[in-house]
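General statements about sequence and structure are easier to judge against a single worked case. No coordinates are needed to read the tokens, only the vocabulary itself. The sequence in question and its structure tokens are set out directly beneath this paragraph.
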Amino acid sequence: MTRRRSAARALGTQLVELGTAAPFVISHRMARMATAGPNPSARDRREFALMSNEKVAAAWESWRAMAGYAVTLNTTATQAALAFWMPWAFTAKPLPSPEDAVVDMASAGMKPYRRITVANQRRLSKRKPSR
């Protein structure tokens, strides 16, 4: 029988993966910037542009995921309130505890950052130095 991981444990795993992958990616890119000097190669310029674009994309994706979760949570809370006042018209869905809601929202916001950082770690660890 498979056990389902709790949301807090999944968030912890995401944070550990992000915390181990980020230093590698940062140090690799900083070393690349230092060795590129004032005239980076085309490959270096692509990597630096990708670095900036990924940060913006992850921020937007994170924001969208957390906002989407907040809208879903708000809809569920509204349905619960309407079911209290008009039980003949609405069916109440169970609301998560405040702690679970915060953990779920944080997890939704962390996923894009973790996914991109871990993918960068894999990609950058396979590459040979540019010079």
Notes: The chain has a mean pLDDT of 89. The CA atoms of residues 32 and 129 lie 8 Å apart. DSSP finds three helices and no strands in the chain. Residues 44-125 form one domain.
